[in-house]
Amino acid sequence: MQSKKASGSRPIATLAARALKIVGIVITLSVLLDILVLSIPYQFTDRNWQIDVVTQVVDRGIVPLVGIVLFLTGYWIDSTVGLLSERKHLWQEPRFWALVLSSILGALFLILFPLHLNNVRQAYQASSQEITQDATNTETQLGNQIETEIQSRQQQINLLVTATDEQLDQLVQQGRLSQEDAQRVRQFRENPNSIEPFLQQTREQLTAQAQQQLGIGREQAQQRLQSQALKAGLRIGISSLLLSIGFIVIGWLGLRNLRRAEL
After folding, report:
1. How far apart are the C-alpha atoms of 186 and 167, rounded to whole Å?
2. pTM for the model
C-alpha cells in the first residue's frame, strides 16, 4: 500500500522539481538580462550612472536570490525521491554553477555596499556646492536689483522735493503718494542731507530681507538634499549588505556540502 503511494507521488515530485528548476533559471536569467539592458548606455566613469545602476541592481537583487533558491529546491526534491544521477566531477553538477553564481553575486553586492555609499557621499557634496553657488549667484542678482531700486527711489525723491506742498497734497489725494511719504518729502526738502542716510537705511533693510529669504531657501534645500542622500544611502546600502550575506551564505554552504558529498 505504501509502495503504491510512494510510486504514485514520484511523478508529481518529478514534475514539481522540474518546474522549480525551470522557474528558478528563468527568474534568475531574466533579471540579470534586465539589469544589463537597463544599464545601457554604459558609462562606468559617471557617478550618477553608477548610482542609478546600483539602485536598479539592489532593488532587483532579491529576485535572483529567490530564483537560485527555487532551482536548488528542485534538486532537493529530486534527492528526496532518489532521482539524482551520480556525477563524477563537481563541475558537471548544475547545482555547482548555481552556487558559484550565488557566491559571485554575494561578492558583487558586498562590493556595491561601500561603492554606493561613497558615490552618494560625493553626489551630496557636489549638489551641496551647487546649492551654495546658486545662492551666491542669486545674492549677486538681488544686490543688483536692490541697487536699481535705490537709484529709482533716489530719482523719485529728487523729483518730488522740487514739488510744492499743493502738488504733494494733490498726489496724496490721487492716491499716487501716501501721506507718510509726502511728509518725508517735506523733511527732505528742508534737510537735503537726510536723503542719503534714508537711502542707505532702505538699502540695508532690503538687503537684510533678501539675505534672510535666501538663507531660509538655502537651508531648506540643504536639508532636503541631506535627507534624500541619507535615505538613498541607507536603503540601498543596507539592502546590498543583506543581499550579499544571503547570496554568500547560500553559495558557500552549498559548495561545502557538495564538496563533502563528492568526497
Report:
1. 12
2. 0.75
